[in-house]
Predict the structure.
Amino acid sequence: MVRPGPSTYHGAMDWLLAPDYWVAREILQRGVAAVFLIAFASTLNQFRALLGERGLLPANRLLAGPGARGPSVFTRWGYSDAKLVAVCWVGLVVAGTLVAGLPQAGPAWVVLAAFLLLWGLYQSIVNIGGIFYGFGWEMLLLEAGFTVGFLGSHQVDPPRTILILIVWLVFRLEFGAGMIKWRGDPAWRNLTALYYHHETQPMPGPLSRRAHLAPRWWHRCEVAGNHVAQLAVPFLLFVPQPVASIAAGVVIATQAWLVATGNFAWLNWITIVLACAAIDDAAFGGLASLVAGLPAGPVGPLAERAAAPAGWTVVVLLATAGLLVAGIPALRNLFSRSQLMNASFNRWQLGNAYGAFGSVTRQRTEVVIEGRIDDEVGDDDADPETETGWHEYEFRGKPGDPARRPRQFAPYHLRLDWMMWFLPLGSLHQRWFQALLLKLLAADPAVLALLRVDPFSGRAPDRIRVLTYRYRFANDQETKDRSLYWIRSDRRLAIGPVRRG
């Protein structure tokens, strides 16, 4: 392995430097940039249909009301679909250069400017995104992108204080999620939560059914392991090496299991990336030796480095102080009996509180939308209330056709599919859902492009209706006999039929 070159500087500020975390910096900066790339691509593909000028919840209306949450370039210069596309393409290009490592080859200021630009552009989108951008992983990406920019470039060693702040971010993410679960649903405390969660989570993946059908003793072990990983292991991230690297490995392993058994956008993927802040070059070198059979040894830079500019050091220390202050409310929140989940305490969305699934849904209810074209139905079926001629709209990720195996989409985020999961937990009479039904009645091309199957191939249906079903995973025998992944029952008419016009 490549050993780090000898440092050419020594001084009072050496404590600020972490020359043994070069691999961690590469993973952190390129990994977070890769998530930004996915986030901007997701926005480019979906925002206009959901929130654009003719979207379900037009952003212009949100900007005119109390819904905008913070700073945004659209607040200053107004929103248009063309401006949204421009913002996305700038974000894609900048994120792509960071993934390729191009800014990292220059001065530290260049890397910082690139990440601050990504942070500002994506925050501009999130702050006008309303409910479609109200997920915890949006603010997590913003905070991560802001922080990793201060790790600098190849011309300087990684600042130790910034690495510690990233570990602190992982701590808030993991411990916050653990405390939300422990304080919330008793199913987490009595170890039964995963009797249900693999089946009822928002968007199951290809392995979710197999995970759900595992023995109950295994589900109890899963929950117990989750408590250890989220309530105990995060404290070990702050312990000197090699304990910190081992703790990070546990976090990564548990997040990888979540990746394998569900579709939680980029939440698990970015957590894996951020956990690498606790792994030093010696640990990465040992892992490479174990996997590839290479000679053991640390990894790191080959060339000698010059001393970091004094101005850069000042910027890093100011950023450290600012992020520490921003994190004080989140620290208090962790130990509050009224703990908030996925909450921001300032308009910049830094120093946030995180958490997920404080309660577990016991049964899965799916909303199914069907349409009907009257002239395709014979005279004997002219009654609009009959079952003849109704065809189902298929979404890309959410369960629909019982014979269709769930797909893997994460880290890409299907925003409409996720919002469909929340509908039966509240009310179907939400403005965005009513707008969706109207768009389907009008065969709106932008909305239809978000779906997997338009049963009418672009034609506008004459009528539309909304049904609800209870879904459960098929057991092995049912899958073998009937080639089904889901069994659906308890069919109910929720809305309609509604006539076009």
